[in-house]
């Protein structure tokens, strides 16, 4: 029954995008359509999650053609979790951007393009999460990337065009890698269906498997911004409008992480790149966070922490144990929420304080205590302070690491090094965010003039110089949306028990590749 | 699996040329490089379908082993469509960055009212000049009506003379 709902999560946003484009001149109708569509998808995703968790995964063969001939859509627990959390994020950020748009009277951004592009982006993200074959995953990626090109260069100012060009070229290269990988995998196995690949790739010679595996990982690694393929992210995200950056930071890199999880669990069951992933995970954490230390601009600082925290998920994937995946999925959910929240809060800080650089902001706490709370909670959360979800996620990952180290003494030293790197990264994140807190929130307005600090002398401003915007009114809708997300991050702690149980079941699904295969091919593979 | 050597060489050349052009700084060249590499990947997908065969339509008396694999062709078609869309967007982006480089942000700040006034003035000029042209043409026509064409007159008089001579 619920299988009928599966295609709707892609279909509704696409139809909504078309309608929103037609209604381009009627802003109120357009907003109603996009909000309605995303609310509907959120409900559908929630229904799917409940049903999949209770009755097992839903599989849909488009057009009634059985796998491997037709296009297969698969929603298992991991897909359903990702669908729910991304639908909620997209909806809340849309509310935030509607609030912003109403306040700004649409002077800066051509909103008639914003809503359709935003819905198409959602369709791409959802499609990637439910794709049952590699080529459909590629199409999902392309849909979301094309929409993200438009959103990133919205308004076409020089700064955004320059940032957009880097982003677009890097994304194009990663798409070409992905497409080449699909071509070679098809040549080697004669299929792109993930279930069938799981069986056939394991039959290939080891070196061929490794080559195909690495090619896919490069493509997904660029999208997930994994070191050393992460250099593009801090240069391109911060220039976009605040809601766009929030969605990109929260969701787009996680689509890459999701693809890596699928690659490691279902697609390549035999090929093993644990050590490589472990090293890369550790380096991503450390190098990302060292970049964050040198930034004066909060948007760039957050972009570097974004890169850095992808490392935790890669570490969890590298562990490959059930506890490892349980913690990874929980961490993905936590990170999507908290990173989106922080970028939305940054948008509020920019409006309220008129700048995003720690050298220009001061006295925000006195001016707006609510803003202080909205920044403080997610910042502590990202820094991994108990009892917030960042702490729980990291603890889960470190426990899984300890378990793995005990089980596999040969690689134990490497696991312990990466755990140490994770702990250090967490502390440096906290340091970078507290520094921003001290400067922007605690420092009095009067201290700002003629302030010089040995420590701050070396921090880098954003390349374009801080864009100073006059203080405008902060609409209620934006504050409400941000507060809702802060509440959600707190809920991740409150409901951590049931959530960990759920991600644990999702992890068990993931590790049983055979179940995935028999799910897609109920009659066995011919 | 059999593959055409020509296509393999073509693919290698396209990959090489495309990557080297993509490394240039100019955006237009990057776009051209992307197109070349994109087509190289398309050829790679096509190569994976193996030896060419019959049209992939199953019917009576058709051996499934003899037909071409249609799936890579569908992949290539999809990839071509995606490339087309992205190329269009890149061209718009290139035009925009050229615009910004030539005119700067001031290029966007042209006053609408002033521009409309300017347009109206231009249109009025056009109407005036075309009215003048119309007048000139009309004058010419009128003039030709008043004065019969000399050549025609000469011809007519010559004809008259010939007729007289015949008589």
Structural description of this entry:
The complex is a heterodimer of chains A (526) and B (167). Chain A has helices at residues 8-22, 27-55, 77-104, 111-130, 134-152, 158-189, 194-200, 206-224, 233-236, 242-267, 274-293, 298-319, 322-353, 364-367, 369-383, 389-407, 412-442, 476-494, 496-511, 513-520, and strands at residues 58-61, 72-75. Chain A has 526 residues and is mostly helical. Chain B folds into 2 domains: 5-53 and 67-109, Helix Hairpins (Orthogonal Bundle), CATH 1.10.287; 113-166. Chain B is built from 5 helices and no strands. At the A-B interface, helix 5 and helix 6 of A face helix 2 and helix 3 of B. Chain B: Residues 137-167 are annotated as: Disordered. Chain B: This is Na(+)/H(+) antiporter subunit C. Chain B: Pfam families: Oxidored_q2. Chain B: InterPro entries: CPA3_antiporter_subunitC, NUOK/Mnh_C1-like.
């Amino acid at each position: 029954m619920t299988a009928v709902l599966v295609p709707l999560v892609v279909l509704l946003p696409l139809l909504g995008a078309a309608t929103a484009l037609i209604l381009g001149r009627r802003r109120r109708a357009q907003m109603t359509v996009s909000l309605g569509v995303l609310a509907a998808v959120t409900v559908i995703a929630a229904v799917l999650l409940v049903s999949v968790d209770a009755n097992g995964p839903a599989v849909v063969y488009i057009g009634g053609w059985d796998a491997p001939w037709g296009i297969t859509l698969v929603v298992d627990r991991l897909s359903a979790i990702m669908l729910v959390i991304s639908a909620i994020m997209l909806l809340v950020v849309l509310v935030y951007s509607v609030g912003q748009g109403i306040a700004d009277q649409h002077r800066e951004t051509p909103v008639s393009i914003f809503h359709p592009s935003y819905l198409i982006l959602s369709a791409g993200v959802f499609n990637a999460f439910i794709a049952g074959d590699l080529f459909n995953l590629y199409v999902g990626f392309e849909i979301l990337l094309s929409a993200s090109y438009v959103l990133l260069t919205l308004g076409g100012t020089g700064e955004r065009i320059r940032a957009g060009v880097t982003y677009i070229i890097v994304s194009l290269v990663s798409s070409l890698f992905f497409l080449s990988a699909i071509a070679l995998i098809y040549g080697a196995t004669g299929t792109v269906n993930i279930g069938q690949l799981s069986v056939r790739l394991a039959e290939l010679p080891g070196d061929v498997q490794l080559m195909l595996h690495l090619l896919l990982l490069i493509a997904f690694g660029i999208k997930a911004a994994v070191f050393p393929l992460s250099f593009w992210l801090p240069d391109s995200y911060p220039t976009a409008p605040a809601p766009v950056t929030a969605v990109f930071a929260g969701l787009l890199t996680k689509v890459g992480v999701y693809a890596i999880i699928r690659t490691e669990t279902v697609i390549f069951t035999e090929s093993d790149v644990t050590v490589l992933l472990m090293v890369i995970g550790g380096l991503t954490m450390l190098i990302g966070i060292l970049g964050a230390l040198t930034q004066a601009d909060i948007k760039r600082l957050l972009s570097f922490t974004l890169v850095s925290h992808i490392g935790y998920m890669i570490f969890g994937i590298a562990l490959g144990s059930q506890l490892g995946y349980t913690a990874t999925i929980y961490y993905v959910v936590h990170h999507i929420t908290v990173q989106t929240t922080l970028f939305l809060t940054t948008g509020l800080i920019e409006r309220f304080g008129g700048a995003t650089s720690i050298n220009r902001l001061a006295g925000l706490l006195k001016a707006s205590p609510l803003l202080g709370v909205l920044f403080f909670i997610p910042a502590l959360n990202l820094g991994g302070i108990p009892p917030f979800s960042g702490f729980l996620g990291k603890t889960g990952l470190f426990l899984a690491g300890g378990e793995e180290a005990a089980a596999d003494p040969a690689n134990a030293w490497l696991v312990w090094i990466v755990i140490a790197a994770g702990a250090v990264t967490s502390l440096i994140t906290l340091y970078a965010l507290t520094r921003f807190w001290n400067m922007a929130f605690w420092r009095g307005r009067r201290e700002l003039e003629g302030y010089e600090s040995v420590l701050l002398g070396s921090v880098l401003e954003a390349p374009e110089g801080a864009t100073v915007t006059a203080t405008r009114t902060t609409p209620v809708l934006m504050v409400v949306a941000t507060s809702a997300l802060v509440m959600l991050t707190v809920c991740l702690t409150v409901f951590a028990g049931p959530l960990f149980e759920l991600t644990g079941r999702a992890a068990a699904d993931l590790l049983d590749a055979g179940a995935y295969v028999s799910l897609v091919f109920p009659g066995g593979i011919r | 699996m059999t593959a055409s050597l020509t296509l393999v060489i073509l693919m290698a050349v396209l990959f090489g040329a495309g990557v080297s052009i993509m490394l240039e700084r100019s955006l237009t060249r990057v776009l051209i490089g992307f197109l070349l590499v994109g087509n190289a990947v398309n050829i790679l997908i096509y190569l994976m379908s193996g030896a060419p065969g019959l049209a992939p339509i199953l019917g009576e008396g058709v051996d499934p082993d003899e037909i071409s694999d249609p799936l890579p062709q569908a992949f290539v078609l999809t990839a071509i469509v995606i490339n087309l869309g992205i190329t269009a967007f890149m061209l718009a982006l290139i035009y925009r960055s050229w615009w910004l480089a030539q005119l700067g942000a001031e290029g966007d700040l042209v006053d609408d009212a002033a521009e409309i006034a300017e347009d109206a003035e231009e249109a009025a000029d056009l109407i005036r000049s075309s009215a003048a042209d119309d007048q000139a043409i009309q004058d010419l026509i009128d003039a030709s009506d008043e004065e019969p064409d000399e050549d025609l007159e000469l011809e007519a008089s010559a004809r008259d003379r010939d007729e007289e001579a015949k008589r």
